[in-house]
Amino acid sequence: MKAIVIDKQGDAQNVQVSDLEQGALPEGDVLVKVDYSTINYKDALAITGKSPVVRKFPMVPGIDLAGTVEESSHAGWKKGDRVVLNGWGVGEGHWGGLAQFARLKGEWLVELPDAFDSRQAMIIGTAGYTAALCVEALVNHGIKPEDGAILVTGATGGVGSIAIILLKKAGYTVAASTGKQSEHDYLKDLGATEIIDRAELSEPGKPLQKERFAGVVDAAGGNTLANACAQTRYRGAVAACGLAESMKFPSSVAPFILRGVTLYGIDSVMAPLDVRKPAWARLAKDLNAAALETVATDVKLADAAGLADDLLAGKVKGRVVVDVNA
Questions:
Q1: Which residues of the chain have pLDDT under 70?
Q2: What is the pTM of this model?
Q3: Could you confirm whether domain 126-265 is CATH 3.40.50.720?
């Protein structure tokens, strides 16, 4: 089997596509023949070594995969079942999806909805699944389309792109924040009706500002998240899922105690199945193949690692899909 392998000797990290025996795979009760994986922000950090994502070496990165069960001793899965995996520490402490096979725990897997094939599942990936978790949080909070616009930050990224599609399909008006003037048409094609310059949100702001948004999907953190909270309407909600700008949160309690704003922390890695399944059901209901294609870039396994620096630099639009068998 071929796999991207990250290894480390002293302080030097090496990344290459290697030929491995299936017997080298870690323990697990389900063997999956991987069709497609993807490169996420966390994968890019692992591949470049710019953050200590990898907890042991050697490591096969890839926090996402979609494929077919090849062997199973788990009661919930049998040979031929179509599955998708997102998170669970795969690609960090357990060999991940940027390989032709993966051995995993059965409780980590979700049945791939009939609406998607394996490639489409990886256009969605953790980014799209996280976007669905964010939208679920806002909908379950009780925010209705008539309550006002939903702000999506980091809008040209994987989370932002699919969040816009899902929100538009659910009837919401979407304001998209980006620093890329060249991508305004892309965002409008996805469903955004207003484009906000990232600079309006990325500078320090007052603890309370003019109420603009009924809800927020934030993948940035930092000043952007603080300003988004300060501009959220009374009893609105903010779903925070990323730190593309910063891990810091330079805010105050003012939006929460004076306007009753709710800040939801969205964890996609260890989310239980009863949270994952509704998110994938929303994706199956509200995404279509044509919409997915607008955010997809396809690469071969041999070329995947080379995109890591560009992804971290914000030069990659939408989602990168990796054909591990090409």
A1: none
A2: 0.88
A3: yes
Write down the domain spans for the chain. Answer: 2-115+287-323, 126-265
Point out which residues pair with 314 in neighbouring strands: none
- Mean pLDDT (the chain) is 95
Give, in degrees to the nearest 5, the angle at Cα 3 between 284 and 6: 110
Identify which of 126, 129, 99, 90 has the alpha carbon closest to the alpha carbon of residue 32: 99
- d(CA 33, CA 103) in angstroms, rounded, equals 9
Cα–Cα distance measured from residue 317 to residue 298, given in angstroms and rounded to the nearest whole number = 12
Residue whose pair of structure tokens reads 């089997």 in the numeric block: 1
Looking at residue 313, its pLDDT comes to 87
2-115+287-323: CATH superfamily: Medium-chain alcohol dehydrogenases, catalytic domain (3.90.180.10)
133's tokens: 């978790």
The predicted pLDDT at position 205 comes to 97
Q: Which two tokens stand for residue 240?
A: 């925070």
Distant-in-sequence, close-in-space partners of 89: CB < 8 Å, separation ≥ 6: 55, 269, 270
- What 3-state DSSP class applies to 72? strand
CA atoms within 13 A on the CB side of 35: 20
